[in-house]
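Notebook, p. 212. Picked up where the previous page left off. The plan for this session was modest: take the two constructs that came back from the sequencing core last week, fold each one, and keep the raw output in the notebook itself so nobody has to go hunting through shared drives later. Recording the first one now, exactly as returned: residue sequence, then the structure token string.
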Amino acid sequence: MWNGFKIAFSMYSKLPMPKSEWNRENLSYAMIYFPWIGGLIGMITYGIFLLKGWSANQGIGVSDITFTVLMVMVPVLITGGIHMDGFMDTQDALHSYQSRERRLEILKDPHAGAFAILSCAMYFLCYVGIYASLTERSVKAAAIGFLLSRTLSGLSVVTFPQSKRDGLAATFAENAAKKKVRVILSGYLIVLCAAIAAAGREAGIAAIAAAGMVFFYYYKMSLKNFGGITGDLAGYFLQMCEIFMAAAAVGADILIANIK
């Protein structure tokens, strides 16, 4: 279990971890620790939001946009951009409109195409706009959402068909104790949905609904265009899930405020 923890954090974060051998035993439960990285991201994000409020109350001359940009940067700084890399590769593959085999080749291509760069720029611009409108309730939903997105991503790795036998997702899927990992991640899913709904109320419920819709789209899109999932597609889902959850939470909070 300790080795699984080290593997998960060394693979999916930039945090320094002791080395651990990548064998079947150590990998069997690594995926259950994947959401914990989201917990760290969520805590730091919420902490920056609180710091923004404290700074404003103290009359410290730091603009709100500075704190907004910091919150947007947190996931990339913690993860090293591994999921954004998958998002960009997937955008290149999807916008190539090539055969399935060619799309899979594009996913493995280390070079970033025009669609990857444009999509990345638009993604972060949208994220800044969404985070600039965060409220106390919507930020809680977004912060817990970092755990939910990774829980769903982990479930997809041990549940959805793989498009190929090699690659990161295939390695984790092949060596995971799938039944037990599914049970544990499903337990996470129930607890996290309850926590998001309780913390964010309407904003939280909207975020959960958005996560569910993105998860369904991810499954259908992966099967149709790639014949299954890959590590890049799992990263693409995670990025899409997080931004749509945040957007839904902010939108619901604004709507409820205007109604009241």
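Okay, moving on. Second construct, recorded in the same format:
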Amino acid sequence: MSGRPLPLAGIRVLEFGHTILGPSCGMVLADLGAEVIKIEPPGGERTRRLKGFGTGYFAYFNRNKKSVTLDYKTESGLTDARALITGADVLIENMAPHALSRAGLGPDDAKAINPNLIYCSLKGFLPGPYENRVALDEIAQMMSGLAYMTGPPGQPLRAGTSITDILGGIFGAMGILVALRERDKGHGGAMVEAALFETATFLMGQHMAYAALSDEPVPPMSARVSAWAVYELLETAEGGRVFIGITSDNHWKSFCAEFGRPDLFADTTLKTNEDRIDARARLIPQLVALFKSLPAAEIENRALRAGLPFARVARPEDLFEDAHLNANGSLAATILPNGTATKLPKLPIRIDGESFALRSNPPKAGEDTQAILARLRARDKE
């Protein structure tokens, strides 16, 4: 942000994180200006070496951070970790339950070292009967009903991204910001907790409210009865698909005019959204035929002129060249640890019209170890 310090400038964060949950929390704070020091084991976090769908984990969630490698299970590594805690404002961890406590770096240990520390623990479950169970993003999606709501009937399906890991990390970051605000008021350090299962359950809140108000089991989204008569994914002339939503009677009027179907608008049995819901069996096949006769670009141009909600179905790689994202600077030019140059999404927020830029690329394992530990030792000699 030009002309003024970043919001979290001067805040030092230690991230004992791995995979996505902890690193996503740390990335949010790093993007907002905190000095985030990622604590990795010798050789680096194993996420760096994941393949398949894990290929992008480290590369995305670790920008704007520094990397220190140490083994806190050794005497010297534990000494360095405790020294780092002394000068930190925040500690983030998403290790296995009680792992840091067994090593002498749990919440009580950290509080004894630094009473003003904000200690953020990110787990599979908040305290309760499940708290010692091992959890993954997919486990939370299954347990919460998210997978049930996503897939076709009888075929639970996880969401197409690590949604509970990422959102759990964001909730952790939000809790940290609240705790820092409370510390500014003189309340000292605090313990912040967030978890995958409770995060996924939060996402289910609207469906739980629906269940409370309904006499029938909640159907998956793929089998729901839509509130809108036209809320469809339709095939285009090229074989791709475009989603179109007609959510008001004004939308319907504009659609019929722009797509050359005054006959549909003149049909009194299709006058209101509720009329069109009752007539879906004969209406939707007509729209299927109409869209299949038109190229996707023409459908998009007509829908734009008509003021209708629409979207072509995109793939992740399509976003690199998305005209909107590139025009408004929502993608940050990034060099990945293997040297690959690409563009990745910034935080989707702006303050006074400015976004939060990439200041440093994802670090190499341990690239800041010597500098940061030297700073600690110099401080100890003062």
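Notes on construct two before I forget. The two ends are 34 Å apart (CA to CA).
Flagging for discussion at group meeting.
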